[in-house]
Amino acid sequence: MSLPRGTKRKPTSIHLITGTHRKDRQPPDEPKAPPTDYDPPIPLSARERAAWDENIETFRRLDMLTDADFGMLARYCKAWIGLLDLDAKVAEFGWVVKGQTGPTQSPYARLWFHMTDRVMRFQENLGMSPTSRARLRTVHGVQKPASKLDKFSKTG
């Protein structure tokens, strides 16, 4: 099985938020899974659950989250708390440690770089990074005042 080429297709909910939705280009068979409850699909620690609750509220306000996204959001919360833990370890032991042949990069620093990359990927996929957020526009944003010609147009 080969992977599809090109850029990833955006879900309809993202098109609605960015204001680029067109019904003629909407896939007719796109699955829609409205969230039924907001409990994480995997066990989370108390700190991970606090991150979950904080993020789930943001996504509920944007009306972008479905049950299908809960797994990725739960993994993001785990990665985020893991990154915070690694921040503490790097602060405690430093970026450079004494090795057998001299100064070397701390193993916590290597893990920190890896975890930072994972967190950034989750943020990009969930629309949480500054660059992905810059592309988003709310549907209920600034309303243009109706012109006198709008009452004659087909869409107005």
Structural write-up:
- The chain has one domain (12-23, 37-139).
- By secondary structure, it is mostly helical.
- The chain contains five helices and two strands, in the order αααββαα.
- It is 47% helix and 4% strand.
- Residues 138-142 have low confidence and may be disordered.
- Strand 1 and strand 2 (103-105) form a beta hairpin.
Low-confidence stretches: 138-142
Largest sheet: 2 strands, antiparallel
Number of strands: 2
Radius of gyration: 21 Å
Oligomer: single chain
Order of helices and strands: HHHEEHH
Strand content: under 5%
Spatially, the strands of the biggest sheet line up as 1-2
Can you count the helices?
5
Number of structural domains: 1
What distance lies between the first and last C-alpha atoms, to the nearest angstrom?
Answer: 46 Å
Q: Write down the overall geometry.
A: elongated
State the share of residues found in helices, binned by percent: 40-55%
Write a brief structural summary.
With 156 residues, the protein is mostly helical.
Keywords:
mainly alpha, elongated, 156 residues, two-stranded antiparallel ribbon, single chain, 4% strand
